[in-house]
Design goal:
By secondary structure, this protein is of the alpha+beta class. Helix content is 26%, strand content 28%. The chain has 2 domains: 158 residues, FAD/NAD(P)-binding domain; 139 residues, D-Amino Acid Oxidase, subunit A, domain 2 (D-Amino Acid Oxidase, Chain A, domain 2). The model has no long low-confidence stretch (mean pLDDT 95).
Length: 346
């Protein structure tokens, strides 16, 4: 009997597996290897909610945990997936500047926000009122991380590449049985796949569609992340990732013309240089009605657990939430109510 089965190998699954590995727990992961939200995510790590210029939920605390976590993974996997770049938020109106100055005085923002607004020096970016600078930010190449971590687990014979079949799961006196595998616990880190999981049908996971583009623009020559209606992340070789859309109504797979037009319309407001679209991708973020993660053990069957609902901040939230879940299962440490599974009625 092993300690854990982990279902799903996006950011939450990787974070949980790595926590188990560090704690010397035995496990096997099950993942179909198809497109997940983590493979098409922006990968941004940023402790500030830029739309309202205020600290994101537990932003500084999550940064303190997440960045060392991904840096350690880089060493283990022999890759570079953490890329640092400041964020330049375009000031659209005077009120934005006032909000920025106010936020830069808040304790949780002070070490990340430059108080002063800087003037734009890039002739191809439209920012007449200048930028606010967010420091210590960047992005994680989530597609590379998921691919390499999958190979890493395969090499250790700890990954089963197949779709999970809920009907094949049996509860036992000492845990669970799935096919020939017996384990003390099973943890579901399935993202939107949880919607079809009969054991957790009481969790109101929503599919929020997001679409991104990669563009090529030779004239821009920008090394910072630009934020103004959309974000624009420099990928190198004159390429930039542009996004993202948020669509709660469109549940169809694949990219859409409407999303491309929406992204282009917003992009054209902030850059004047010619560009061409290289690619467009789409994925579904797992979100909850209160926009908080949901973690914990099943109220009736304690051998079943979930870590889900990371939304658009999975890069920062996954290491933190999976750590809490593992410590709860192994040590009985309580999970805060605001992200606890118990906040939803069973």
């Amino acid at each position: 009997m092993i300690d854990y089965i982990v279902v799903g190998l996006g950011l939450s699954g990787i974070s949980f597996c790595q926590k188990l590995s560090n704690d010397q727990k035995s496990f096997v992961a099950i993942d179909h290897g198809k497109q997940s939200a983590s493979r098409v995510a922006s990968g941004l790590f940023n402790p500030i909610a830029l739309k309202r210029t205020k600290p994101a939920w537990k932003g500084p605390q999550l940064m303190t945990m997440a960045i060392p976590f991904y840096k350690a993974l880089e060493i283990d996997l022999g890759i570079q997936c953490v890329l640092h770049a400041s964020i330049l938020k375009i000031m659209q109106q005077t009120a934005d500047i006032n909000d920025w100055h106010r936020a830069s005085a808040i304790a949780d923002c002070r070490s990340y926000l430059n108080h002063d607004i800087v003037q734009n020096s890039n002739p191809f970016i439209t920012a007449p009122l200048g930028f606010g600078i967010v420091k210590k930010t960047g992005w994680v190449d989530t597609a590379l991380l998921v691919d390499r971590y999958s190979l890493y687990l395969e090499s250790k014979k700890a990954l089963i590449k197949t779709a999970f079949d809920s009907n094949a799961l049996q509860l036992t006196e000492n845990g669970v049985r799935y096919g020939k595998i017996e384990a003390k616990h099973i943890v579901f880190t399935q993202g939107v796949g949880l919607i079809n999981n009969p054991w957790f049908s009481f969790i109101p996971i929503q599919k929020t569609k997001g679409e991104l583009m990669v563009i090529e623009c030779e004239d821009l020559q920008e090394k910072s992340i630009i934020h103004g209606g959309v974000f624009m992340i420099p990928l190198g070789n004159n390429r930039y990732r542009v996004g993202s859309t948020y669509n709660w109504k469109d549940q169809t797979e694949g990219t859409t013309t409407n999303a491309r037009r929406s992204l282009q319309k917003k992009l054209n407001k902030i850059i004047s240089a010619p560009y061409r679209i290289i690619s467009q991708t789409a994925g579904f973020r797992p979100t909850t009605p209160d926009r908080r993660p949901v973690i914990g053990v099943h109220p009736e069957f304690p051998q079943l657990a979930i870590c889900n609902g990371m939304g658009s901040r999975g890069v920062l939230q996954a290491p933190f939430c999976t750590g809490l879940l593992c410590d709860h299962i192994e040590k009985g440490i309580p999970i805060p109510h605001e992200i606890n599974i118990n906040r939803f009625e069973y």
